[in-house]
Amino acid sequence: MSTTEAAASGAPADGGERRITRADLVKSWLLWTFFSHSNYNYERLQASAFAHAMTPVIKRLYGGNEEETREALKRHLVFFNTAPDFGGVIHGVTIAMEEQRANGEPITDNAITSTKTGLMGPMAGIGDTIGQGIVTPLLLALGISIAGLGTAVQESGDLTGATGNPLGPILYFILVAAFSLGVGYFFYTQGYKQGRNFITSVLKSGLMDKVILGASVLGNIVLGGLTAQFVKVYVGWTVNAGDTQVRIQQDVLDKILPGLLPLGLVVLTWWLLMRGWHPIKLLVIYVIVCIVGAIPFMGPEPHYITDACGSSILQPYGPCPDPLPAEPTE
User: Fold this and answer.
1) Element (H or E) spanning 156, and its range?
2) What is the pLDDT of residues 272-327, one digit of tens each?
3) Largest Cα span, the chain
4) CB atoms closer than 10 angstroms to residue 48
């Protein structure tokens, strides 16, 4: 084969085989991991980051041909968007296709672009569901529980004794980084080693569906426990019934079901979200309700948030003393 024929077919002119090294693959993965959103834009989203991650591979495969290098970079500047960790499998598959193309296989630009376009949606759905929807909230719950106020403070409502544990955010950072890096490296390398067959077999087997279902159930259980521990709604209102004072929170609601109001708030929020309410709208409404409910228009203004009982509608539960017995009348 002549040099001209070799260039036209994509095969190396010296008859040797063009292969990337493990260092090239790792460098490509690191570039994608740390720069996947560095130039995120409305026109092409992650396209420039994809091309940036492909530069070590392109240099290895086409470094001796300026025209091929230019065309390869242009090939990877088309619209692209997927999950940074699970979506790394697309890069691995693309690298394998580029390597085959550089060695004379009849792989067209359209074949590479179609593969990327066809996989980026499913991998984005899987990555967002498992990573952002399940793993991150679970690890946040773990970190928050470690860095929390402590049982004594939560039960008494005395915030003056609140202390935090810095191990909570540190542990969250380590675990979420380990998950993202581990998953990203595994899918990146497996995509290259096994090519399109890897992701096709995984999607057809239904394995991801089972993983998502199981993780969703676990996530709901953990978030339910987190809700019971950290969502606090109390009514500080006290009403007079003859000579007896009835505390709405202690004497009525807690007798029916402790934690009834937090549970009702969570269920109401879920129901409104399912009905199409925007989360920001709900947040604004809840903030307004909290501000109005904290105004001490039903009694003396407290010096501390925990030193008065029943002076506002919504108030931390705990400092309210038992009502004094009625004085005998003469």
Assistant:
1) helix 151-156
2) 988 889 989 999 998 898 888 777 766 655 555 555 555 677 765 554 555 555 55
3) 122
4) 18
Let me know whether 68 and 174 are in one domain. Answer: no
Alpha-carbon gap, residue 330 to 317, rounded angstroms: 36
Its pTM surpasses 0.70: no
Crossing angle, helix 207-230 and helix 136-146, to 10 degrees?
30
Is residue 101 located within the same domain as residue 15?
yes
Tens of pLDDT, residues 245-258: 777 777 788 788 88
How many domains does the chain contain in total? Answer: 3
Contact 94, 55 (CB under 8 A): no
Instruction: List Cβ neighbours of 138 (8 Å cut-off, separation of 6 or more).
Output: 218, 219, 222
Same domain membership, residue 181 and residue 254:
no
As given in the structure block, the two tokens for residue 207 are: 């394995």
Q: How many CB atoms lie within 10 A of CB 147?
A: 17
Q: How far is CA 148 from CA 144, 169, 177, in A?
A: 6, 11, 22
Which residue, among 45, 93, 52, 43, has the nearest Cα to 72 in the 3D structure? 52
Cβ-count burial of 110 within 10 angstroms (0-12 exposed, 13-18 middle, 19+ buried)? exposed
Cα 83 to Cα 123: distance, rounded to the nearest angstrom: 7
296 and 209 assigned to the same domain: no
